[in-house]
Structures are given as C-alpha cells and as structure tokens.
Amino acid sequence: YLTVVIVLGMASIVVSLWDKFSESRFRPLRAGVFAVFGLSGVIPAVHYALAEGWLNALTNASLGWLILMGSLYLLGAFLYAFRVPECLYPGKFDIWFQSHQIFHVLVIAAAFVHLHGITEMLTYRMSIGACAVQSAALVL
C-alpha cells in the first residue's frame, strides 16, 4: 500500500510542477491524478473491512469519516475537471468561487475530516490499550 501512495504522490508532484501539464488539455488528467491519489485509501479500507467486519470498520476504524473524505476529494476533482460553475455561468466566476478555488476548499475540508477520523481512531485504540487485529499480516 505504501508503494502505491508514494507512486501516486510522485505523479501528483509531476503533474503539478511540470509546465507541460499546466496546459488546459491536461486539466482532466491532473484532476484524475489528484482524485486517484485522494482515493488511494479505498483498497486498504476495504481490505480492513473484509478482515475485521464492516461494523468494526465503521465504528472503530472511522470508515464513515474516510468515505466522507473521499467524497469531498471526488467532488472537488469533478468541479475542477469540468470547470463547474464557470461553464454554467461564463464570466460570473472569473474572480471569486472558481472551480479551482472550490477544489482547494474541498481538499482542506477533506483534510480536516481525515484528521477528525484518525483522531477518533486514535482515541479508540488508546481506550482499548491494544491493536484489535489478531495477525500482523492480513491476507486476502
């Protein structure tokens, strides 16, 4: 899982900093890279839920907060890729409330949701005094 996160993080850096990808034709690609990076936790979360049960994942592992975080990332990427609301009202959002600005607000909101979720997870783990997983190596 860590390798995937590192590769997606590097891809995000490349599409953000390489001038070639700043062209408008690469806007959907950039949004896609950000969305995939933002959702890179889906497979480990599903893996945990299958190994430990959905109820445990929702109550003890803050899966609900992670789902909300992913939804905020996806919404931001969608608005950014398709330039909503600029495409609906040309000229009305040239300075304020551009899709790029909305994207950043949603990313920050998702980061706070993530922080809240992992803080709840920490509180639960500290209250039980041990890790609930029986095996260090979970196998599908």
Automatic annotation (TrEMBL):
UniProt-listed InterPro entries: AdipoR/HlyIII-related (IPR004254)
Main subcellular location: membrane
GO biological process, one term: adiponectin-activated signaling pathway
Superkingdom, natural source: Eukaryota
Recorded GO CC terms: plasma membrane
Protein name: Adiponectin receptor protein
Subcellular location(s) of the protein: Membrane
An example Gene Ontology molecular-function term: metal ion binding
TM helices/strands, residue ranges: 32-51, 63-82, 102-119
Keyword terms, alphabetized: Membrane, Metal-binding, Receptor, Transmembrane, Transmembrane helix, Zinc
Membrane topology label: Multi-pass membrane protein
Chain residues that bind Zn(2+): H100, H104
Sequence similarity: Belongs to the ADIPOR family.
Organism the protein comes from: Triatoma infestans
Pfam families xrefs: HlyIII
